[in-house]
Specification:
Largest sheet: 5 strands, parallel
Number of domains: 1
Helix content: 25-40%
Number of helices: 7
Strand order of the largest sheet: 6-3-2-7-8
Structural class: alpha/beta
Radius of gyration: 19 Å
CATH class: Alpha Beta
Number of strands: 11
Strand content: 15-25%
Distance between the termini: 25 Å
CATH superfamily: NAD(P)-binding Rossmann-like Domain
CATH architecture: 3-Layer(aba) Sandwich
C-alpha cells in the first residue's frame, strides 16, 4: 500500500491520473467550510479540472473544518500528512473504474485548533469565494418563524465575544477585518440542498452581523454576494475496505462517483 502525498505522486500506478498542473504555483482563492463527501467528489473535482487550464493558479482551495472531536482531528491530521490530496474513482455504467488524484485543496485548517489561522485566510485579499456545505439544517433558521435564531448557544457565545467558533461568527469576523482593511467582500456560495440556498445564507449571515454591528450588516448587504445554486448530486460514502492507495482516519482516501 502506497502512502499518498505530494512526494509520492510520481510513484503511483500508471492507471491513477495525477494533477496536470503545478500545485506549488497555486494560490488560495476559495475557502470551503465543511469538507465532506459532496465537496470532495464534486466541488473540488470541478476546481481540479479548472486548475488544469492555463492561468487558473488563483483558484486553489483551502478547506476548513469547524467540528471538534476525535474524528474531526483525525481528518485534519490525515489531510496534513497527505498534503490535501485524495483520490476519487468514477465508474461508467458498464462498471469500468477510473481513479484520479484531486490536488485542488492546497491546505486544510481545523478551526477549533487554530481559529486565528482560519480568520486570517478568510480575511486575506486573495480569498474571493467562501463556499459552504454545512448541511441543510446548519443555517440556524427557526422553522416556525423563518428568522435566524439568536438564542442558539454557539451564536450567543460568539456574539458575547472571544474567538468565534460558529460558521457565522467566523465568517462575519473575517468580513469585519476586510472592511477595516479597506478590502471588499467575498462571495458566499452555499452548496447545501436548500431551495434559495443563497437567500438563506444571506438571511443567516446578515442577521448575525446585525446583532453584532448594524453598520457591518449594511456593509455586508452591499459588498457580499450570496448567489443561489442548485445542488442535485449524490455524494457516496468513502470506501472502507480493500485500501489500494492510502488511508484517512482508518478509511481509504477514495470516494466513488456513480
Amino acid at each position: 500500500m502506497r502512502t499518498l502525498s505530494g512526494r509520492t505522486l510520481d510513484s503511483l500506478p500508471e492507471h491513477v491520473a495525477v494533477p496536470r498542473y503545478d500545485r506549488s504555483a497555486l494560490r488560495a482563492g476559495i475557502v470551503h467550510i465543511g469538507v465532506g463527501n459532496f465537496h470532495r467528489t464534486h466541488l473540488a473535482l470541478y476546481v481540479d479540472d479548472c486548475l488544469a487550464s492555463p492561468d487558473q493558479e488563483a483558484w486553489g482551495i483551502v478547506g476548513v473544518g469547524l467540528l471538534d472531536g476525535p474524528a474531526a482531528r483525525a481528518k485534519a491530521a490525515a489531510f496534513r500528512r497527505q498534503d490535501g490530496l485524495y483520490t476519487v474513482t468514477e465508474f461508467t455504467p458498464d462498471g469500468e473504474g477510473r481513479t484520479r488524484v484531486i490536488g485542488a485543496m492546497i491546505d486544510y485548517l481545523h478551526a477549533p485548533a487554530d481559529p486565528e489561522a482560519v480568520l486570517a485566510r478568510l480575511a486575506h485579499r486573495d480569498t474571493r469565494i467562501v463556499s459552504l456545505t454545512i448541511t441543510e439544517g446548519g443555517y440556524n433558521i427557526d422553522e416556525a418563524t423563518g428568522a435566524f435564531s439568536l438564542d442558539d448557544p454557539d451564536v450567543a457565545r460568539d456574539l458575547a465575544g472571544g474567538p468565534p467558533k460558529s460558521c457565522f461568527g467566523i465568517v462575519v469576523e473575517a468580513l469585519a477585518r476586510r472592511r477595516a482593511a479597506g478590502l471588499g467582500g467575498f462571495t458566499v456560495c452555499s452548496c447545501d440542498n436548500l431551495r434559495g440556498n443563497g437567500d438563506t445564507a444571506r438571511k443567516a449571515f446578515t442577521a448575525f452581523a446585525r446583532a453584532r454591528d448594524p453598520g457591518l450588516a449594511d456593509w455586508i448587504d452591499a459588498e457580499v454576494d450570496f448567489p443561489n445554486s442548485m445542488v442535485d448530486r449524490i455524494a457516496p460514502q468513502s470506501l472502507t475496505q480493500k485500501p489500494t492507495i492510502a488511508r484517512v482516519a482508518g478509511c481509504r482516501t477514495g470516494w466513488q462517483r456513480g
